[in-house]
Amino acid sequence: MAPDPYRYFRIEAREILEQLGRGALDLEKGAPSADSIARMLRLAHTLKGAARVVRQPEIAEQAHALEDVFAAARGSDAAVPRAQIDVALRLLDGIGSQVAALTPAQPDEQPVKAPLHLFRPEIADLDALLEGLAEAQVQLGSIRPRLDRVERARHLIDLVAGQLARPGQAHGLPLRPETVAPLDRPADRARSMIDELRALLGTLERDLASGLDAVHRELQQVGDAAARLRLVPASAVFTFLERAARDVAGTLGRRIVFQGRGGEVRVDNLVLGVVQQALLQVVRNAVAHGIESPEERLSAGKPPDGRVTIAVSHRGQWASFVCTDDGRGVDVAAVRRLLERKGVAAAGPAAESGGRASATDALLRALLDGGISTSGTVTDVAGRGVGLDVVREAAERLGGTVTMRTEVGRGTTVELVVPLSMASFEALIVEADGVSAAVPLEAVRGTRRIGSPQIVEASQGRSILHEGQSLPLLPLSRALGLTVRRDGRSRPSSAFVVQAAEASAAFSVDRIAGTARVVARPLPPLAPAARAVVGAALDARGHPRLVLDPAGLVAEAQQRGEVDAEPPPARRSILVVDDSLTTRMLEQSILESAGYEVELASSGEEGLAKARQGRHALFLVDVEMPGMDGFTFIERARADPVLRDTPSILVTSRTSPEDRQRGRAAGADGYIMKSEFDQGVLLERIRSLVL
After folding, report:
1. Beta-strand runs (E) in 391-493
2. Interatomic CA distance for residues 444 and 426, integer angstroms
3. Across 213-335, where does the E strand assignment appear?
4. Do residues 512 and 610 lie in contact, with contact meaning Cβ atoms separated by under 8 Å?
5. Which helix (H) or strand (E) element contains residue 648?
6. Is residue 679 within a helix (H) or strand (E), and if so which, with residue range?
7. Which of 414, 439, 189, 455 is closest to 320 using CA atoms?
8. DSSP label of 671
9. CATH code, 423-560
10. Nearest-5° angle of CA 386, CA 387, CA 390?
11. Interval 566-584 mean pLDDT
């Protein structure tokens, strides 16, 4: 087979086209920044140069035309006009078609749609890689106990050395001066060899332990990378869907605003490919059937621009894709008439007996069965009644479900829920009664010390006040059905709050270990588990970690609603000011584990307000924050008569001498670099300042 001269050009061009498409849609939403325009011009220029290298003058000319479009927006304070965006998108479509045409034809090749993602590895190969890595982690974990044998050898050497120190006593003979000297010479040699052997074993032990730790870290990184090859962020479909919504709206004379949420949720590549086609139909229906014309919306008291939102979330073993619009809603009466015309009794007496809601649900289920369209005419975007067939078939193909809700004049929601063979997400790592567990971070609403005055005793159990709301408080070990150990250890003193749907609950744990990205797999079919446990993952050492479902946790707390912990005594309070959620939770976990009360602020302005409202033993402040930075926070605290004596520590990635000097000049009592962050050093520095 002849070599493919355009292989790398196609990859580069598709990546650039994706970025240009996303950028063009963003330019239409607001005044462009100088940086964004410069970036678009660089991308177009790079594409033009690459096209000339592979001798594709038509693509190069279109890329040059793109440069002209973006250059016209340079220096403007207004959003780029829609007409210019239309030109840019047409040019991008044209370039995309020409790039696709450069793909070499294969024998007996069937025409297919352009792939969603640029890279589609073989799933079987990735599964084999991931299983091999998991097994390697387990095997390496079994090597670590062998270090005990090294320790045993060292102990035996110590025993021999002790015997040599008393040569006569080894045989039960008394020591005589005339016999000690001859025995000293071989004993000295033996002791010298033992000392050398002891040193060698010590070096071996340290090297082996260090090497095992390094291998574990590397395997974890490789495993995460391999998982990411299979798992792609849900945001990969947002640009595609926004473009589709925009095109349909333009055809029908509608105006829409598209929003994507939850794009960081990572989903199996093949699952997302199927879901993309279903969501395309849902979005097209939302615009074609739901969103009214600007005039209709204004007369109904709505803004002229309709809103279409795609929200993606992770729910244990499932991924939820929700499309919501704020349009006119489904014409239920029209659906009923169409069903009657077809002789289908979707909302018969049984449904009617349940009331209007159940009758509407039955009609919507019939609509999801397909073959029905409320559009009066057949157009390029609606009217054939096959759109929802695609959605239903996608759900059936993936073993998921699709549901629809509607409210006249308020809009429609379609939810597609599909199972995941694997999922990757940021999680809060907690420990309870010797069990490590991961809770999806998106469901965590906070962490705190339990035993504060907000704990409330009630007949149904204990609860805790969190942000003004009374929440049931339950030991995580009970929610997981664990046998709680009563061995005299200190009782749980930390808690985390999770939210599922509209309900929240708090759970007490022994330790909050911080946050981590986990790659979760479903439990084996016959593995027994509490309903809150939906999967498992491996930590960096290859040890299993439970993956918890927020909805299952909340259900357990609402059912049992009690806590198994005594309020600890009051602790010194530290105010943590950092705009990063991950950093705040990590520092909170470290400080609470060390016995401090912690109050959190996500900005310098919020931190200063909280500092003035309460008494704190120390301020732990990030330097780089939007708005008021850490230097300014400390300067203002030092200028406040009430706060001036409160010690403060800066935590920052800035390492230059000038930044250190500025921190000292501002009045900071400590300066800790994130690149050299050490938990022990931080706690020791805090102890020295708050004594």
Report:
1. 401-407, 411-419, 423-432, 435-440, 444-449, 456-458, 461-466, 469-475
2. 11
3. 231-233, 256-261, 266-268, 306-315, 318-325
4. no
5. strand 648-652
6. helix 679-690
7. 414
8. E
9. 2.30.30.40
10. 90
11. 73
State phi, psi for 313 to the nearest 5 degrees: -145, 160
**CB contact at 8 A, 505 and 471:** yes
- Architecture of the domain defined by 7-101: Up-down Bundle (1.20)
Greatest mean pLDDT among 48-62, 135-149, 328-342, 608-622: 608-622
DSSP letter for 286, please: I
Q: Which residue has the higher pLDDT, 688 or 109?
A: 688
Dihedral sign for Cα atoms in the order 238, 239, 244, 245: positive
Q: What count of residues does the chain have?
A: 691
Tell me whether residue 153 is exposed, middle or buried, using C-beta atoms within 10 angstroms of its C-beta: 0 to 12, 13 to 18, 19 or more. Answer: middle
Q: Locate the domains of the chain by residue range.
A: 7-101, 123-173+180-231, 258-419, 423-560, 573-690
Going by the DSSP 8-state scheme, the letter that residue 384 receives in this structure is S
Residues 6+ apart with CB under 8 A from 492: 432, 450, 475, 476, 508, 509, 510, 564, 565
Instruction: Give 344's Cβ-side CA count (13 Å radius).
Output: 17
| Closest by CA position to 147, among listed 92, 81, 201, 83 | 201
Q: What's the pTM?
A: 0.52
Q: Would the pLDDT of 62 be above 80?
A: yes
In single-letter form, the type of residue at position 588 comes to: Q
Q: How does residue 148 score in pLDDT terms, banded at 50, 70 and 90?
A: low
- Chain-centre distance of CA 507, in angstroms? 21
H-run or E-run covering 43: helix 34-53
Name the CATH architecture for the domain at 258-419. Answer: 2-Layer Sandwich (3.30)
Taken in order 264, 511, 586, 213, the sign of the CA dihedral is negative
Integer CA distances (angstroms), 611 to 94, 227, 465, 621, in order:
58, 43, 21, 12
Q: Which two three-digit tokens encode residue 333?
A: 């009466």
pLDDT of residue 294: 93
Q: How far apart are CA 291 and CA 492, in angstroms?
A: 52
Is the Cβ–Cβ distance between 577 and 619 less than 8 Å?
Answer: yes
Burial 411-447 (b: 16+ CB within 10 A, else e): bbbbbbbbbbebbbbbbbbbbbbebbbbbbbbbbbbb
Of 90, 76, 78, nearest to 20 (Cα)?
Answer: 90
**Identity at 501, one-letter amino acid code:** A
pLDDT band at residue 221 using 50, 70 and 90 as cut-offs: low
Fold of 573-690: Rossmann fold (3.40.50)
**The token pair that represents 413 in the structure block:** 């929601």
Cα separation, 496 vs 514, in Å, equals 11
Output the six-digit token pair for 444.
């965590």
Which residue type occupies 670?
Answer: G
Lowest mean pLDDT among 169-173, 185-189, 524-528, 530-534: 169-173
| Cα 64 to Cα 539: distance, rounded to the nearest angstrom | 50
Residue 118 — very low, low, confident or very high, per pLDDT cuts 50/70/90? Answer: very low
∠ CA(319), CA(320), CA(321), 5° rounding? Answer: 125
CB 251 within 8 A of CB 301: no
Are 7-101 and 258-419 equal in CATH topology?
Answer: no
